[in-house]
Fold this protein.
Amino acid sequence: MENKKIVIALGGNALGNDVEEQKEAVAKTAEVIVDLAQQGYHLIVTHGNGPQVGMIQTAMDNFDKDLAASKKVPLPTSVAMSQGYIGIDLQNAIKYELYRRDLDMKVSTILSQVEVDEQDEAFEHPSKPIGRFMTEEEAKEKEAEGIRCMEDAGRGYRVVVASPMPKRIRELETIRTLMNAGHIVITCGGGGIPVINKGGKLVGVSAVIDKDNVSSLLASKIGADYLVILTAVEKVAINFGKENQEWLSDLTVEQAKEYIAQEQFAKGSMLPKIEAAVRFAESGEGRRTLITLLEKAADGIAGKTGTVIHM
Ligand SMILES: Nc1ncnc2c1ncn2[C@@H]1O[C@H](COP(=O)(O)OP(=O)(O)O)[C@@H](O)[C@H]1O
Ligand SMILES: NC(=O)OP(=O)(O)O
């Protein structure tokens, strides 16, 4: 029987918030990924980059404040750097875990560019929080410099950038080829490097694509059986954080749409995950999304925990 294909989207807690935390976090993440690889799944791993791309962009902006705007490092270049920086730590952690278990398996990181629509309304309405958390005062100072900020889910203020919908993953065939050759493939990091297609020339645009959205697109294009979104909660809830909170184990697309209309899922955190799951379910028969904790991934795939979204 053909091996089942899984796209795993890693959230912030699989990576940590700084260089030191990342090294520790990816070691644990690698164990979970190699456990699944040992069960015979074909695995494609995507990841977020919110804290990391913000850190890189800040470092680049501060390199020389007097540089002309045309010489400054653009945001898509920082996204590319974040793919390399996170990709190499994940790849090496997985390599080490394979070595420790004496497994003859390969792991590759593919830098990936994702086409977006130049006319996407998201360019007019920045919604993706990146970088470190700031106080309201710090945010006001940034706003005065013309940098947009927003309050992020009660956790403080962050810089906010445009997050257009992913339309086309340019390295899809490379990803497919490596996956079919048995590699664990790390790709579409940070949502992919956002580009527009100008008569065949790929030109970076100032944005950060949502990694759950690109993971859903990747999973549908690759014909994955499962999209697994690993985050900081074991299950999705309705009335989240309230007295009448109810954890959900099973969610049909129809129910999900009703809950979305009731605004049960927070914008910028759980909402894009549910929307990504709905799009994946609607893209082909039998396509299911699991949302759970990193350490519960195997149990979730075995149907023991997490929230599964399906038609
Ligand atoms: N209805 C909900 N059910 C469960 N979690 C929710 C809900 N609404 C918001 N959340 C929050 O969404 C968070 C996951 O989003 P986020 O931190 O952005 O994810 P990521 O793991 O991709 O970095 C959870 O940790 C939880 O605090
Ligand atoms: N690009 C992206 O979605 O990053 P986060 O998951 O860290 O927000």
User: Anything to note?
Assistant: The chain has a mean pLDDT of 95. The pocket of phosphoric acid mono(formamide)ester (ligand 2) is lined by residues 12, 48-50, 190-191, 208, 210-211 (CB under 6 Å).
